[in-house]
Amino acid sequence: xxxxxxxxxxxxxxxxxxxxxxxxxxxxxxxxxxxxxxxxxxxxxxxxxxxxxxxxxxxxxxxxxxxxxxxxxxxxxxxxxxxxxxxxxxxxxxxxxxxxxxxxxxxxxxxxxxxxxxxxxxxxxxxxxxxxxxxxxxxxxxxxxxxxxxxxxxxxxxxxxxxxxxxxxxxxxxxxxxxxxxxxxxxxxxxxxxxxxxxxxxxxxxxxxxxxxxxxxxxxxxxxxxxxxxxxxxxxxxxxxxxxxxxxxxxxxxxxxxxxxxxxxxxxxxxxxxxxxxxxxxxxxxxxxxxxxxxxxxxxxxxxxxxxxxxxxxxxxxxxxxxxxxxxxxxxxxxxxxxxxxxxxxxxxxxxxxxxxxxxxxxxxxxxxxxxxxxxxxxxxxxxxxxxxxxxxxxxxxxxxxxxxxxxxxxxxxxxx
Length: 417
Ligand SMILES: NC(=O)c1ccc[n+]([C@@H]2O[C@H](COP(=O)([O-])OP(=O)(O)OC[C@H]3O[C@@H](n4cnc5c(N)ncnc54)[C@H](O)[C@@H]3O)[C@@H](O)[C@H]2O)c1
Description:
Layout: E1 4-9, H1 15-24, E2 29-32, H2 36-43, H3 54-62, E3 66-68, E4 77-82, H4 97-109, E5 115-118, H5 126-139, E6 148-151, E7 170-174, H6 177-188, E8 194-196, H7 200-231, H8 235-242, H9 266-276, H10 282-305, E9 314-318, H11 333-343, E10 347-351, E11 359-360, E12 363-364, E13 366-367, H12 371-377, E14 380-383, H13 392-398, E15 402-404, E16 414-416
Parallel strand pairs: 1-2, 1-4, 2-3, 4-5, 5-6, 7-8, 9-10, 9-14, 10-13, 14-15, 15-16
Antiparallel strand pairs: 6-7, 11-12
The chain binds nicotinamide-adenine-dinucleotide.
């Protein structure tokens, strides 16, 4: 049987950049995904993942990379890395269905000596208590003896031009020291720095700490912004001043809410696990309350800015993605902001160069193309996302009234969050 160095399971925002890095490092790589249209698109050289270009994919295909939905390929792997989604159930609980299903597929094809890595974000214990039993019972092999099991959290930051996979240190937690050693040997060929955690649970928890740290600190500056407005203090100036401290302070920026599939989701993995252990993470719950309240706060501010309130007002939303210059609206706070505006009777349009269709309550909003004309026409413009195309001078000049939730624009008709 011919061997494939690496099989990446799940070819999304995390898996595809990993596969690209492996191809660059000369590792024979195959991608496995259950999404057949995605598989066809990748094999045709089209990448739906922002940051992985058509040229990248052409290079990958030239090195022998192929995507497939046939899990038989797992039988040829020396290393399998699982990068499937870990979202939430409708009840807001961890949804590990994709992880379980990927682990079952791997188990059915597992051979002695294979390194199996979980990269999907999850609560501590997932690798040992969820993935390990599935792999062992499905294969008849023993983790740490017959095959190697590792957890290595993904730290990808879509749109980050400075830090990518290669120059972001990679944390590796092995089930045993030997497992960790195999993990280090694999990732050492792909990234500049590997960091060995004490075990899988420490590696899992480190990822939740990183994202919960962001979640809590964003809540702190959001609440600071709300309070500063009440005190007539310019929170953006406060932040700029505080950020000059060269030690002991890490700057975070307020905004209309948090978005994406990590920062709003990962703290719930932590609190859900804590709950099961009879522990209450009171700080996380408080932070969630603040962050979840921001879209409604933006709507209240907007309502107060307009002499006749939002009812019947023409409102233009600028930037509906969850991150600047990234074409992704998953969990974007713009959705909740738009809902809160619509509830108050505002007539909404949006501008976003990255998003063709943006729905609120299943109704698509009108998308504007001519930004200066739309700014001049709207009773109120709300800058929600910091896309590069939003030049401060243009917004200050053309908008009749602007609510800037990103603290960028100065001017007579501008109100800051
Ligand atoms: N996107 C990020 O910025 C980011 C950063 C750090 C960590 N993470 C974590 O990485 C994991 C993956 O996230 P993502 O953003 O790449 O998700 P994604 O939705 O972009 O991609 C996941 C892919 O997995 C595929 N998939 C689902 N179930 C599968 C299965 N059983 N077998 C094979 N393929 C399957 C899907 O079809 C999809 O293509 C999540 O746990 C996420 O929390 C994401």
